[in-house]
Design a protein that fits this description.
alpha+beta, Resuscitation-promoting factor rpfb fold, 3 domains, 3-stranded antiparallel beta sheet, 3-stranded mixed beta sheet, 4 helices, 31% helix, rod-shaped, disordered N terminus, G5 domain-containing protein, transmembrane, G5_dom, membrane, signal
Length: 281
């Protein structure tokens, strides 16, 4: 009859309990993988598992074991480390391949739209009044000044002038187009001019006639009798342009000494007191 060695116990239920734990772990792992696959986060899960495995493998390879995770040697720790790095790399590549750039941009746009403030109500602008523009033709009478001219006239004495034709202003009408904006004049354009009254040019006649020089009368021819005038006696009165009494106020050119008697016409006006005697004083 054999006796069991000390420290060892034959427990028939221990294998069953261990198998149950393994089965429960497999079921839980399968459920987790199913949930991750359905939610579309399988690549993130692989990355997470790879990071955990990398940490456990690095710890076991450094210390010698990680009994909590059933890693009992450095060799197994190195294998776990390599598997974790591989899983993390594969998961990262799969995650990058499944991300749609358009979805990222859309997500950013949606986020920016959510952060925008509420739209302000549109501002009601005050309508700008339309200016009232009108155009009108106007007629303005304007005087036309007359011109002046001069002509020589031989019938008028030199040094004098006479207005022979009086000047008169004319008249014209200026037709313009006037533009007004809201009642205020903003432009003016001359369209045409119409002359209604022609101006009259003023004419001035300037005299050019020279004055007539009258020649002095010729002296009377000497009469018979020695050249003495027959209208006088008692003294010889010569024939001349003028004869005055000697010693008087006359200026000649001929003089006679009196007294003398006037017997004819007193052509030299020698007798002053009507007594018939000349040059007696």
């Amino acid at each position: 009859m054999s006796v069991p060695s000390p420290g060892k116990h034959n427990n028939p239920s221990e294998p069953i309990s261990r198998q149950r734990k393994i089965l429960i772990g497999v079921v839980i792992g399968a459920l987790v993988l199913l949930i991750v696959a359905v939610s579309g986060a399988l690549s993130q899960f692989v990355i997470f598992a790879g990071v955990i495995a990398t940490g456990v493998g690095a710890y076991a390879a450094t210390v010698g074991s990680a009994k909590f995770f059933r890693v009992r040697s450095r060799k197994i720790g190195a294998l776990v480390l390599a598997g974790g790095l591989f899983a993390a790399t594969i998961g990262g590549a799969a995650n990058a391949a499944t991300v749609d750039p358009n979805e990222s941009v859309a997500g950013i746009s949606e986020a920016s739209e959510k952060t925008q403030t509420k739209p302000r109500p549109p501002r009601t602008s005050t309508p700008t009044p339309t200016p009232v523009v009108t155009q009108t033709e106007i007629r303005e009478p304007v005087a036309i000044p007359f011109e002046s001219t001069s002509v020589n006239d031989a019938s008028i004495a030199i040094g004098t002038s006479v207005v022979t034709t009086a000047g008169a202003n004319g008249e014209k009408v200026i037709i313009s187009r006037v533009t007004t904006t809201d009642g205020v004049e903003t432009a003016r354009e001359v369209l045409r001019e119409e002359t209604t009254v022609q101006p009259v040019t003023q004419v001035t006649s300037v005299g050019t006639k020279q004055p007539v020089v009258v020649a002095p009368p010729a002296p009377a021819p000497p009469a018979a009798g020695g050249g003495c005038h027959p209208s006088y006696s008692g003294a010889c009165v010569p024939f001349a342009s003028d004869v005055d009494c000697e010693g008087g106020s006359g200026n000649g050119p001929e003089y006679v000494r009196g007294p003398l008697t006037v017997v004819g016409p007193d052509v030299y006006d020698l007798e002053r007191d009507s007594d018939g005697i000349a040059c007696d004083k």
